[in-house]
Amino acid sequence: MRIGFIGLGRMGSNMVRRLIRDGHQVVAFNRTAEKTREIAGEGAEPSFSLEELVKKLQKPRAVWIMVPAGDATEAQIEDLMGLLEPGDTIIDGGNSNYHDSIARGAQASQRDIDFIDAGTSGGIWGLQVGYCLMVGGKAETVEHWRSIFETLAPPDGFLRVGPTGAGHFVKMVHNGVEYGMLESYAEGFALLRAKQDFGDLDLHAISHLWNQGSVVRSWLLELAERAFDRDPQLESIRGWVEDSGEGRWTVDEGIQLAVPLPVLALSLFARFQSRLPDAFGNKVIAALRNEFGGHPVKADEPAAAGTRP
Q1: To the nearest whole percent, how much of the chain has pLDDT over 70?
Q2: Torsion-angle region of residue 7: left (phi > 0), alpha (psi -120 to 50) or beta?
Q3: Which of 38, 74, 178, 222 is catalytic?
Q4: Which position among 45, 171, 225, 246 bears the catalytic label?
Q5: Which one of 73, 120, 214, 269 is separated from 92 by 20 to 30 angstroms, measured CA to CA?
Q6: Is the pTM of this model over 0.85?
């Protein structure tokens, strides 16, 4: 099939490569022209404006957007709305909020343009193993572009989960679950590292061991094994953990639906905690424990220049 593709970052460029490898024709566009030229050297047809991209596609057109969620996605969709025609399809493969996807689907429908929200998981490994695709949209529209989804996904790795918005909702919950899994591994390895009675426990060897038939084996644990192999004590990494927003949305959804999500919520707050070199809240706890129980406190170290203690 022939498809337009916007956004050639780490995931987007590999998705284009996977499509080309399976015989699809891809018209590619990126805001940075160098990336467009780079992927053109690997078989994509380059375009250097959205107008050029749309002109190079035949009706019915499909354009996959793979740019950061929020303003960047909104701008691309708004511009495409003015260029596409009835019967064309916009596919948003980023991490958009599902509420935004529902609204964008309604906006597109007013112009008889189809909208598909494709929650995409796989990261930088997708080129090799495929991308898990959680797809929302009209059944007939998704079916029409099935070969695109099947090329990008591994066997059984693509599913239409429901109408517009459902794809990004399922991806949001997926990422919330990911937060909890990451936090549980993090706490487990932190405890192993802290226990000195048995010498320095080999975290690389233990992560490898746990992947051999253990009930906690997983791809994330395989990645932990790789990380500990490169840097056994993770000394080259600062413990700063960012969040993409989907963990927040998941917890908020739990609040709205009165569904208890204690593990997911605490794993999100743990990420916030990771960004504070000396969290003030922890100082409050230490001070109160000293006040009511005489528990010892440690003297604060001078703050680094430009930081707030």
Answers
A1: 97
A2: left
A3: 178
A4: 171
A5: 269
A6: yes
